[in-house]
Amino acid sequence: MLECEINSPLSILETEERDGKIVGYALGRVVADEAELLKICVLSDYRKQGIAEKLLGKLLKKMRENGAVACFLEVRSKNSPAISLYQKMGFEQIALRRRYYPDDDAIVMKRSDLA
Ligand SMILES: CC(C)(COP(=O)(O)OP(=O)(O)OC[C@H]1O[C@@H](n2cnc3c(N)ncnc32)[C@H](O)[C@@H]1OP(=O)(O)O)[C@@H](O)C(=O)NCCC(=O)NCCS
């Protein structure tokens, strides 16, 4: 599924390399004027060094260049590191999907000032 998403012509992939290997990536897609953050992940040994912030900043810039005026994402309500990252990057909660996951709610967030 990941390979399929990465290879989609609508997808944008940003990666970060350290020590000769990819240690983080962010994957998004733009459809018409709306973008969606699909995945962001940093290897555990490389966390808390600003890598996710850098990846997301670059991804949002490319989304804007590809015509997006807003970006949406969905995150587990218990994933406080990710929620803090998204808030720091200007995302706001717009909805709560109760029991979206078998063991958690989903928070829907939006950043609407991309244009
Ligand atoms: C969420 C994740 C991508 C953050 O990556 P990171 O490179 O460690 O994040 P950064 O160092 O760029 O941190 C940027 C901001 O995110 C927030 N943050 C990151 N890790 C945090 C933590 N453990 N606790 C609280 N806030 C955290 C903070 O606001 C931080 O800003 P600050 O350093 O000024 O406090 C990483 O923890 C991860 O890969 N988690 C597993 C995958 C995941 O849950 N992805 C999101 C859902 S798909």
SSE arrangement:
Blueprint: H1 2-7, E1 11-18, E2 21-31, E3 34-42, H2 51-65, E4 70-76, H3 80-88, E5 92-101, E6 104-111
Parallel strand pairs: 3-4
Antiparallel strand pairs: 1-2, 2-3, 4-6, 5-6
Bound molecules: coenzyme A (COA).
Q: What is the CATH homologous superfamily assignment?
A: Gcn5-related N-acetyltransferase (GNAT)
By CATH, the topology is: Aminopeptidase
CATH class: Alpha Beta
Would you list the SSEs in sequence order as H and E?
A: HEEEHEHEE
Bound ligand species: coenzyme A
| CATH architectural group | 3-Layer(aba) Sandwich
Q: What is the number of helical segments per DSSP (H or I, 4+ residues)?
A: 3
Mean pLDDT: 96
Unreliable runs, pLDDT <50, ≥5 residues? none
Euclidean distance between termini CA atoms: 30 Å
Largest sheet: 6 strands, mixed
User: Rg to the nearest angstrom?
Assistant: 14 Å
The percentage helix is 25-40%
Q: How much strand?
A: over 45%
Structural class: alpha+beta
